[in-house]
Amino acid sequence: xxxxxxxxxxxxxxxxxxxxxxxxxxxxxxxxxxxxxxxxxxxxxxxxxxxxxxxxxxxxxxxxxxxxxxxxxxxxxxxxxxxxxxxxxxxxxxxxxxxxxxxxxxxxxxxxxxxxxxxxxxxxxxxxxxxxxxxxxxxxxxxxxxxxxxxxxxxxxxxxxxxxxxxxxxxxxxxxxxxxxxxxxxxxxxxxxxxxxxxxxxxxxxxxxxxxxxxxxxxxxxxxxxxxxxxxxxxxxxxxxxxxxxxxxxxxxxxxxxxxxxxxxxxxxxxxxxxxxxxxxxxxxxxxxxxxxxxxxxxxxxxxxxxxxxxxxxxxxxxxxxxxxxxxxxxxxxxxxxxxxxxxxxxxxx
Length: 350
What we know:
The structure is a single chain. This protein is α/β, with parallel strands linked by helices and 350 residues long. Helices cover 50% and strands 7% of the residues. Strands 1-5-4-3-2 form a five-stranded mixed beta sheet, with helices on both faces.
């Protein structure tokens, strides 16, 4: 025991002398600093490649759709490498709008559906929009189809737009003129989405800001709503749930906020979707908690494919050292649309 104590004292003294020498000659000049940096870099690279960079989980309800995606949309089976210095959910969500470029796109045939009161300053009717009411979307889809009946017709929805699109597809089934659809970062269960966004950090980073945006969008049309809604009460809302309770649910005739959130949740209608739909979600998305993603329901519908990444946040999906150009989401969208336009006929024959 005494020998061990003496050895420890000697080791401590030798270590002290060594560190004192390193300080005198310079941390980096001695090579220790470089060694530490290299060691940390190797350790981080190992952690990143073993725990962060992963292949997405592909969930399909039928072998035909699964094989079609592997053949013509291989990006959904490739390893997704999130940006090495920003892979955490909230970081990806917050940084994407500021980092990614906005290149000039030359459209040939594209229709952008804007909800009422969003695109411009004028609102002609005392009504806005919600996730559950698909009347406006149906009108747009059938109008576009009447103009170009022979064109391949696909639709894509992001976040709330994806919820609206899935609710439409679930209501109408196979009778839609759409050939296929894609959704990104959809909130599958509105109750779970709201609960997640009301956690303190998420409320501070996202919920409160989005609530003020909603309030601003309706306040500029305040004169249109004052007869049916207490706008002063609406403007005091501190969360999306409070806004929906005071404005959205009242606007669309729901008895309670629970009635509206139940009707707005697309997971209830996924089993009725009648065309090929690809849905990209990240399981770390604070807007759409992983436990609410309807994996089992998707397995029961041969028209549905879920692509689930481990990281990516909400509409983030940043990749590369400096994610200035396209994201993983962009690549999924491009490959899927191209696959459906050029090879979609294969699905009907499988």
